[in-house]
Amino acid sequence: MNIDQANQSAVEKMISAKPMLKGVATARDVIPGMKDNLILHAGPPLTWARMSGPVRGAMIGAMLFEGLARSEAEATSMAENGEVEFDSCHHHGAVGPMAGATSASMKVYVVENIEHGNKAYSNLNEGYGKVLRYGAYSDDVLKKLRWMNDVLGVALADALAQTDGIDMRALIAEALQMGDEGHNRNKAGSLIYLKTIAPLIVKVVKDDSVAAEVLKFIGDNMLSVLNPVMASCKAMTDAAHGVEGSTIVTTMARNGTDFGIRVSGLGEKQWFTAPAQIPIGKFFPGFTQDDANPDVGDSAITETAGIGGFAMAAAPAIVTFVGGTPEDTMKATLEMYQITTVENANFQIPALNFRGTPTGIDIRKVVETRIAPRINTGIAHKNAGVGQVGAGLVRPPMKIFEDALTEYSKKYKS
Fold this sequence. Notes:
Elements: H1 3-16, E1 19-26, H2 27-30, E2 38-41, H3 53-66, H4 72-80, E3 85-88, E4 94-95, E5 107-113, E6 119-123, H5 139-160, E7 166-167, H6 168-177, H7 187-204, H8 208-220, H9 226-239, E8 249-255, E9 258-263, E10 272-275, E11 280-283, E12 296-297, H10 301-304, H11 319-322, H12 326-336, E13 340-349, E14 355-361, H13 363-369, E15 375-380, E16 388-394, H14 398-411
Parallel strand pairs: 2-3, 4-6
Antiparallel strand pairs: 1-5, 1-7, 5-6, 8-9, 8-12, 9-10, 11-16, 13-14, 15-16
């Protein structure tokens, strides 16, 4: 077996993918396997007993949102008694930032990879502050979620129905040229998204005050585009999964307890996990490193697809959010070329003479070089209900790459 050829095939599928934001729909109507008592979470599969504070909080909030429970105590009892099911977003073609909570009646983005025919989904972004994805579930959090579902989600669905879709690969490429990296800095991408969607919203929303409210919400949230970007990266990396003999990583995800990866040649639901690390970063006033929860979220799908922490050289200003110096962003991207397979010409970095982003993490190179992927991330408080407390940098445990390579050797021994 020629591993390099298998890897070339996998990364070609990844970089040739053309994700299009096709619409917004109700999760139960579009997400495979979704049902009323199922709540999806970020990262590898996780039981209620092992969930960290913010992930439990998000699951409780989703149960309250769905009307499955009427109180925190009832939600907790239902979870403990197995009356509600939990599963990884990734097992259902979906991704979600931080806790990743996605339930049956939530509106979700629908992204279709028109090159290879696969689809991916992500929930809507709540903005900053005390929000469900960071484990908050107070009445004001749930009120915002209901407005997002009933007003924002409907407006976006009607707006996108007027188009053939938004070319997300082109949007990401342009955002990288404008100082984003696609994970924690999405200011340019969100403004491009707003510019694209605004005329459509004005066209379909007949109440001017509602249209203004929707546009203000999108415009005030510099993470508005993150969720469709994540779904786009999921569509790209899923296209590369299942290539016989490939050692390319197609998923990196965290659930606040474990960090997990999946590898193209090693099965659909075969995860390699180890305890998630605690990110090191900058904290909001009143919080310190001691408040941080272990790493959480599906947003590392951006790094898996070759942007995010792998494209930090395109976004030197991100250091004001995650810490470090502009020089560190350059070093971060240059280091990632050592553990990847190709340079993605679709996503170019001006500061590197328009070099393509490092793409296609090879578990062999990670183990050989002892260089783990770089990820930039938001930081959740370790207790449920508090929310985001900062942002920083983290790497996966080396053990998961070693375990994956060991399993690969067993499977493909000749």
